[in-house]
Amino acid sequence: MSVMQPRHAASPPRAAVYALPIGLLVTALASLWALAAPGGIPGPAEAAALVPPAAASVQELPAIEIESAPVVDACADPAVSAALAAGNDSAVIASFGGAESFRASVVAGAAPCIALDDPTHVWVVVNKVRRLSPENYAPASVASSGLTATSRSGAARRDVASALAELASSAADAGAGRIGVNNAYRSYTVQVRTYGQHVRDQGTASADTVSARPGHSEHQTGLAADIIACARSCTDIHSFAGTPQSDWVAQHAWEHGFIVRYEDGHTATTGYVAEPWHVRYIGKELAEAYHAGGFHTLEEFFGLPAAPDYVG
Ligand SMILES: [Zn+2]
């Protein structure tokens, strides 16, 4: 993984104002004027004549304010609304001028049409303080990735399933071994069962560190998958860390549109202990920006508050 520090969530204000005192400007212009005067550099007397009588009056004038790119509503661009209407996330991001520009606009509050709580988009952020809406949301359709699945929840949203297949094939080509899938899409109902089982096994407090409450799981969006290492047979998620597959995924998942969502050392932000097996699809464009920016959580990426625990 990159050793870069995450960019700070708050971007510098986009409407930075550069003020140049007019006195300074006049002095600079006068110097240029003097240098450009016929006959070369004038003597002191000539210079005094050439320099306009400045100081006393101009100092009272207000500073010139030159505004750089003001905060504009990026969503006012018809290309953005057209791409959103078409449900084409890649095109939306492209219409912002690329993923980093998209991210910066969202963080700066300059993209009101981009809803980070809309589970139909790759930029949705679901965590302990951001419940899915509707709570029982289900993707329009899910498909098998073709990978060996060790549960009945091996399918994912169609685009995610093909990205997962691509990731696994790339890992195998790189000699990292075979990747299978344990859980990908889990419906609200399945999540009720999964979380309920954890609560029964270990109590609520402990269950909350390893399993999402129903309506708070990325698995319900169809964008997440718990992947596993397979040889002749597949192992389980808890055996994934330290495998060649896990190391490869940590370094290369972004190339296929995924991030490792719950990294070691970021529990205070994500609310989850490290899960090297849980990959979340955010699309190739955003994943590339996430990697390039050295981010470790989606919360930081989009300038959102940490989500260490449920509210209430
Ligand atoms: Zn998971």
At the first level of CATH, the class of the domain at 139-301 is: Alpha Beta
Bound molecules: zinc ion
Strand order of the largest sheet: 5-6-8-7
Largest sheet: 4 strands, antiparallel
Radius of gyration: 27 Å
How many strand segments? Answer: 8
Head-to-tail CA distance between termini:
35 Å
CATH architecture of the domain at 139-301: 2-Layer Sandwich
The DSSP helix count reads 13
At the fold tier of CATH, the topology name of the domain at 139-301 is Muramoyl-pentapeptide Carboxypeptidase, domain 2
Q: Shape, please?
A: globular
Arithmetic mean pLDDT: 85
Description of the molecule:
This protein is of the alpha+beta class. Among the domains are: 34 residues, no CATH class; 163 residues, 2-Layer Sandwich (Muramoyl-pentapeptide Carboxypeptidase, domain 2). The strands form three sheets. The chain has a four-stranded antiparallel beta sheet with strand order 5-6-8-7. Strands 1-2 form a two-stranded antiparallel sheet. It has a two-stranded antiparallel sheet with strand order 3-4. The chain is globular and about 55 Å long. The two termini are 35 Å apart. The site of zinc ion has 4 residues, from strand 6.
Brief rundown of the structure:
The protein is α+β, with helices and mostly antiparallel strands. The protein has helices at 22-36, 44-50, 55-58, 78-85, 89-95, 99-107, 158-173, 188-202, 204-210, 244-252, 267-270, 284-292, 298-301; strands at 17-20, 64-67, 142-143, 156-157, 178-183, 224-230, 258-262, 275-281. Helices cover 37% and strands 12% of the residues.
